[in-house]
# Entry
Amino acid sequence: MNNEKKILLEIKNLKKYFPIKGKGTLYAVDDISFNIHEGETVGLVGESGCGKSTVGNVILGLLPATGGKVIYDNINLVNLSRKERLPYCKKVQIVFQDPYSSLNPKKTIKQILSEAFIIHKVGNKDEVDGKVRYLCDITGIEEALWVKYPHELDGGKRQVVGIARALALNPSFIVCDEPVSSLDVSIQAKIINLLIDLREKLNLTYLFISHDLSVVRHISNRVAVMYLGRIVELAETDDIFNSPKHPYTEALLSAVLNIDMTQNKEHIVLEGDVPTPINPKPGCRFAPRCRFAKDICFKDMPELKEAGEGHYVSCHLFSEK
Amino acid sequence: MDKPLKNVLEIKNLSVEYHTDFGVTHAIDKINLKIKRGQAMGLVGESGSGKTSTALSILRLLPRPAGIKTNGEIYFNEQLLDSINEKKMQKLRGNRMSMIFQNPLTSLNPVFTVGEQISVVFQNHYKMGKRESLVRAGEMLEVVGIPRNRILDYPHQFSGGMRQRVGIAMGLACNPELLIADEPTTALDVTIQLQIIELIKELQKKYETSLLMITHNLGIISELCSVVSVMYAGTIVEYGTVREVFMNPQHPYTIGLLNSLPKIVGERNKLTAIAGSAANANNLPEGCKFYPRCPHCMEQCKKDFPPFIHLSQSHSAACYLYEDKSGGKINE
# Structure
């Protein structure tokens, strides 16, 4: 089914390594590949330090990549110069996690929302006003807030401003980097609903990065699970949540504490901590904590392979079949 | 069925204010709370609802001079805490009642080894010598799943999950009757959170400690606690057994809170957000604090804070929607 859909963004063998003085190399993103189709939302989940935000930053060019390609509209976005990149900035945007630090405290909401038009030289003063009004209409920002500064708004409203700003130049693709993690649940629901409404209204494509599995499940069409710089599983949302294949995905899902009292409360408790991504040992990254680890898991890195229709797993347990 | 247990903690009509440059903030407004021996109670609410202030007033650790307890009594084992002096309070704190803090990186002292920090608890409360207390500190580390030779390490040498284990070891060192855990896993990843929750569960059962679990994560409460109180803007709006409150919520705020939660199983319906924005503690309305956001708001709600209506023997909600007939529930 997905084959018929147009591929909007193609991520090919993307790598991002950070040299650490005197310690070696931190493998933040290590050779990941996946496609994002037009109009779909891909959820990217994983624990802190697994490299999910780095993926978002590299796609946007906020960080240079060590290797690999991000192809949008037949152009490789990776490592473009500032000037070459500018036209694509309109099409590829981001909503940041923390609306406190991502909005300039010295600018009013209106200034923040008009900045993109000024940088990209879109329209004169009146036209910009009209565009800002449109942005505020679709996101539900009252005009009374135009003259306010970010600190005068509560967290939820601030995040709405962050979303409106990302929409300014009519992008087709938005990276949402933990957009609801710093919000209370009742506000979080509003932001999620807004993101879903906008996706339908403006035909947006999202890469939704989050550590909160229930939020990702709610908003995504497909989900990629990351562990220490690698994608360990990628599948349709329902497949991931109903029949996880990778032992890490299984443990991650089982660690989500549910309020449903009718469910059984047996959990798979992973031993130990997430190991460091600096100079990782050969073999599967998850092997030291895996219940099913075999000899081969400590020697060879498993490839991401199709283990069911559209269900990709990177695990030796499935590669033999 | 079960014989009446003594209340380890009883809070009556507690009110707390913060006096700041911007005026007086009413952090807690006349709340009542009871925890029985060995019971695990969850205290749930969004940021700024007064959960942490409740914990701090129990331990008498409210920030001074801003935080002032203006009303109410706190009983610990039926002893009025307000009547005892600071020196006696120090003997209770960390000994018979103790606390696990949210962020172990700030609650542990970076310039002392974890062994020194845990052993201080024994030196203060059990008058132990240095050598003996260090041995006990090592034992405590083993209880929480850390090898005892790590007593010589500093907090920065531990991972986030391990640091929180150290915090738990310190909290449980003197086998307290009441343990208050204030968002102990909020800074941690889900798989590590699960380790910590399982550890607290196991130790709480083993030592029969009463637990006050403060969190915004409803999942943690259903995992650990038997009873739960829901806080909104400094007031408790509903309490009952976890099953009653989560399966059959009655207060409009609790209903809204549960509806706005994305689910990990079942249908993916559109989330129902609570209308309006979170209450501003500097400018709280008269009457029921939730009325500006409530879909069932009535005239009466704007005037007086509703009394608790007993919906069953253990389940109560502070809302005018219900009539005071035990068992007489009004369905939505």
About this structure: The CA atoms of residues 321 and 330 of chain B lie 8 Å apart. The interface with chain A takes residues 46-47, 159, 161-162, 189-195, 197-198, 216-223, 242-243, 246-247, 256-265, 268, 270-274, 277-278 of chain B (CB under 8 Å). The first strand of chain B starts at residue 7 and ends at 20. Residues 326-332 of chain B have pLDDT under 50 and may be disordered.
